[in-house]
Amino acid sequence: MSRIAKLIGQMCWRNSRHIDYRFDVEICKKPFIALTKGERRWVYEISTEMNKSDQRRIWTNIELQYKYYKNPIEGLKTWIQVVQKTLKATLQYIRINTDDYPTQNRVLIYWIKTQTSSVEKFVIDGSTLADGDVTYFLNTITAKWGLYLDAKLSDQFIINFPRTLAAFYVHHGEWITVVQLLLIPALSISIVHSSLTPQELKVFFELWMDLKYHKQLRLFYKDTVQNGVEIKRSDGATAFLGRFESPHSEFGLIRFCLYSNDLNNALNA
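User: That's the sequence. What structure does it adopt?
Assistant: Structure tokens below.
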């Protein structure tokens, strides 16, 4: 571990001794950690190929270096600990693919919680049903800014939100009912492959117009067919609701956008 700390220390010395780094972790077949400062990004990929160890690839603002470990998860944990200790960096972003280490998912997320209990952005991928793992992840680590669910979930999946999010995205959104939609506390909601019917969406937007739900909602996306209309809330707030082309759906995408000069500030808060 001391050798890794020395390497990171040398990197910091070349750039600045007293600056803050953004710290990201991706848990997949080829896990890696990344450090970002301004436009500069350093990526350390954990590899099981010994001949790749310490090889570097450099682009304009990105430097990629491979680090060999027989056990990639243990290697990733080692680097997470050293980065936090050496740079005192805060882990801001986690992306995990539930398919790649299915027997270690929960143990690894629990271990990460011992390092930090929350992150700004949490992304969960996976092509197999992962209700149990996703529920465990969300009960273990809090996403403070954005939650992105690309994982496959069953129709019985239920999610509870401990706080309001700036962004909530679901790629396999068939499980989201209109009742669950009403309870999603987010400024921006995106749902792809939704099973919501036009009648249910009508109810959703009527409740928004009556100030009964989602008073803070700024953006809403759903793949379906819909003509463009302007809708007005009882307090005078006006939004556009219309159909746009989408790479995720041959029918297009519903887009709801509240007219507001504060939109960008709200989403980036």
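The chain is about 25% helix and 35% strand.
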